[in-house]
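To assess whether the prediction recovers the assembly geometry, we first specified each molecular entity separately, as shown.
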Amino acid sequence: MTILTYPFKNLPTASKWALRFSIRPLSCSSQLRAAPVFVFKLYLKAVQTKTKKTLAKPNIRNVVVVDGVRTPFLLSGTSYKDLMPHDLARAALTGLLHRTSVPKEVVDYIIFGTVIQEVKTSNVAREAALGAGFSDKTPAHTVTMACISANQAMTTGVGLIASGQCDVIVAGGVELMSDVPIRHSRKMRKLMLDLNKAKSMGQRLSLISKFRFNFLAPELPAVSEFSTSETMGHSADRLAAAFAVSRLEQDEYALRSHSLAKKAQDEGLLSDVVPFKVPGKDTVTKDNGIRPSSLEQMAKLKPAFIKPYGTVTAANSSFLTDGASAMLIMAEEKALAMGYKPKAYLRDFMYVSQDPKDQLLLGPTYATPKVLEKAGLTMNDIDAFEFHEAFSGQILANFKAMDSDWFAENYMGRKTKVGLPPLEKFNNWGGSLSLGHPFGATGCRLVMAAANRLRKEGGQYGLVAACAAGGQGHAMIVEAYPK
Amino acid sequence: MVACRAIGILSRFSAFRILRSRGYICRNFTGSSALLTRTHINYGVKGDVAVVRINSPNSKVNTLSKELHSEFSEVMNEIWASDQIRSAVLISSKPGCFIAGADINMLAACKTLQEVTQLSQEAQRIVEKLEKSTKPIVAAINGSCLGGGLEVAISCQYRIATKDRKTVLGTPEVLLGALPGAGGTQRLPKMVGVPAALDMMLTGRSIRADRAKKMGLVDQLVEPLGPGLKPPEERTIEYLEEVAITFAKGLADKKISPKRDKGLVEKLTAYAMTIPFVRQQVYKKVEEKVRKQTKGLYPAPLKIIDVVKTGIEQGSDAGYLCESQKFGELVMTKESKALMGLYHGQVLCKKNKFGAPQKDVKHLAILGAGLMGAGIAQVSVDKGLKTILKDATLTALDRGQQQVFKGLNDKVKKKALTSFERDSIFSNLTGQLDYQGFEKADMVIEAVFEDLSLKHRVLKEVEAVIPDHCIFASNTSALPISEIAAVSKRPEKCFPSREGMLSGSSPAFSDLLAFGSPCQVIGMHYFSPVDKMQLLEIITTEKTSKDTSASAVAVGLKQGKVIIVVKDGPGFYTTRCLAPMMSEVIRILQEGVDPKKLDSLTTSFGFPVGAATLVDEVGVDVAKHVAEDLGKVFGERFGGGNPELLTQMVSKGFLGRKSGKGFYIYQEGVKRKDLNSDMDSILASLKLPPKSEVSSDEDIQFRLVTRFVNEAVMCLQEGILATPAEGDIGAVFGLGFPPCLGGPFRFVDLYGAQKIVDRLKKYEAAYGKQFTPCQLLADHANSPNKKFYQ
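The predicted structure of the complete assembly is given in tokenized form:
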């Protein structure tokens, strides 16, 4: 036990915590918890926990991740380019079925996240589930919350289980950036719709006479924030500048991400990846965006958004990615009854939102302290951090924000800074910069990375955090399931 | 709503846009000796780049003052002499201001033309040195870069500006009746092309950073930053400096070229301008347009064209010389003095002399969704005020809400707002038919029809639902506020604090008297169209509490208004001045002057709208209403024309623009105005014989203006007005009194009180009491040293 080594000052609200600790053990589901709980009771007021308490809550069902998989994440325009989103989602679902051997009929509900919707399959969860051979009696819906869509799918599932509505949920996400819906212009659409309604030849001719060539200009899906008309890369560049993050720092961080991802891939740690036989193409077995380069090489790139002096480049940003992920979530007792050995608990989670213009990508900074407080943990309790890396500059800006008393006081209403996540525990197997970032699917990858790292590296708590368009953010505590 | 229904046309007049921009022009570079310590400029060296930071002490803006000039020369000399330094960055430490120009007072202090010319020449020398610098200088611009500030910036080798709403570039000198006198007339055409340069200098318009980039006025843009490890504004300046330093290095290393790639259109324009014939055509065209718009009343625009022409046709040396001479001539003109006076007045009327109100108005309610009500709603919601717009019928409410939406949407079309901002602003507006939510209102502004009994009913209804602290403001153009307030539940315990406040005695005195519950009824007289007209006339009664006044002014300032505060009385100030002039208009028409002729006489005197058109725009019924009301109170002095003319017009349905017929015929989509021939019989029936001795064109103009001026001075004499400055601002910004004359009081000062009294006496001899000069005016005529502005 290391509990005595932690200084008292780290425990700001000792008495409140004490109360919680004394309640928690009652609902503790695992026998293994008993001993530490006893210790807590003894040192209650003076000590800070490092490990060995669980975050179970009284009268709330424990929710576990049985397992999760993903297709390899590929650069858009590569092997997946001829697929449709539900094809990718189906691949993730069949991969999950194969991995977990879950009987299809026990799945109560399926939820998928996606961002850029294919209009033909707007409820992509349902189309993919039907194709993957799930029971047609299993309902499915699709959620969207920008880059945290899969997180929303998971937490929706958590809610359904915790409230007793469901026992078994499949949550996942999919994004296919190789193909996006490009529409006719509004004027053209209006003309075509009116033509449809026109009853006589005269009406039709008069409508056609209104046609102008500029009606044919296509309408692309928005790459910029609707409320501010600013693209995310542009905002990231400004954010990096606001926190004085240099180009070199960003390149170094990106290099770290790629190097770690490469290492993890080589060592076979990315066990959530399932091979995917793409129709008409070879089987894809691994992510193809991991490309460790050199700082010199990266320094040569020109800024991608704020030209010519910005700091965000193609090399230190996440790239457009195709991919899908899926995860089997159950009520703990159901999983145990079915003979599963779950990988992790899904614990407290938190959604936050802030100014979509100047704080677009600061979600993790805001969400992290809140979810920690909610769970009664501190930064020191976390063994594995898995943050979504939209841009190097964004991660580093979040670091600086979390490390700044000034920012905490003036923008977060806190007395002291959030604190910096230790880099040696941070995205150790690569992140969105290197593995790729299919918007709708990243959330599940983060949770599985945290769960798998906790199993592999040891440790009890993982913290998942992500930012999303619209100035929103998410964080969730993942607790390792006792071995 | 006489004054007041009036007229978007006023704001269409370009010179009328006077001085919306923040700072001002006219440099006072002089060669005075250096100070021992630097207070305006701090300068440091980063690597081989010198960073020159401008920060005038004790001021929100940097102005080109004597001290700044000498420190600047000193610093630049050091930089040029240093071997270690290879380039420089020029930046301001003040958020929101690069250099806003120079202190206008410095120019006003000049006694002779030569003095002013000399100032200009010294300024020219300084910027010439900058331009010829062998070490590249980068101007890093955040905030207003106007007048002399812009001239400094364009003489640097490179310009980087923040893409902030506050960053504006421009040459507003013309709005003060002057011209850019530090080489601007010569450099701008070379930089952005002759047509664009003339446009900038002739309109004085402020150009936002992104537009400036497209024009080639700045070379790079820097996005403003959000919160980081420091306050956003501070970090943005720091970031701008960092970026500017990299560019300064790049320029010194010749890695970056200060030359800009020109677009095709620009190249073609530039090529066309090399052909003398094309140039002559351009000058001719612009001159024609200027003559048409200024009617020869404003000398500055023509001189600007002249100076630009000289520079291009005869070379820079001749151009600079011409620039400095014409600058001197212009600054000495009456027009320039009048316009500068208006600038000062406007600054004064942008302050809350009552201090900060105890409670900020956050929830506003407006009664009546008509043209005025909706207009007030529009200028309130877009400043973030939660506003309820209430009307009695859904149709009226719909129309009002649509007006607000349209006003905002027009801004989207002009790219002043994004559609998202429009929507979020529009959500501050709640349209409703009942009094729900009034219990939270901090202020209610009624803009219902001008009818005393209706206003009384509304006041009683509202007082039943509003909280105790809520202020009731009446938007009326002529009904005395004290009469409206008579039915208020609340004024009984009021105290007479107003005298103390307005006569300028210490606020403590009126606070001393603040026992009991003070009166919370006040007048807020807006001018239509509310979103375009800058003036707000606030009317306080004997019983209005100081805090109520402070709140009303604070709301008005928030709405972006220039505010004059006047005492209660029939017609207050603005309507009261306009009424006798309107009476004279009727008489002149009765005497057989064609409405078109009358219009051209008034516009050529400098009024933005002709007198007959004004009646049509205001509404003949409204004019009649006011004429009758004020006629009753003021009697013969407001007589002259026969109100029967208006009565007959109303009975025939000739209500002016709103009914399609007045003196003119108005048709949707038709720009040309034809006279309404049906008016002939009315005019014939009321025809008066003209008096030849007072019916020359000039006499007609002066009959109108002297009645206006005489009444304005009387308002000051009676204490309706607190200061002449407010009188001038009210007349120019609310009624379209010729800006080149600077307002009625400035006009008396510049034209001479004696001459005006002489005129009045001449007309008095012909027509009687209506032209009797008031006592104050007579006093000024008797003692020539007496001036409204010392």
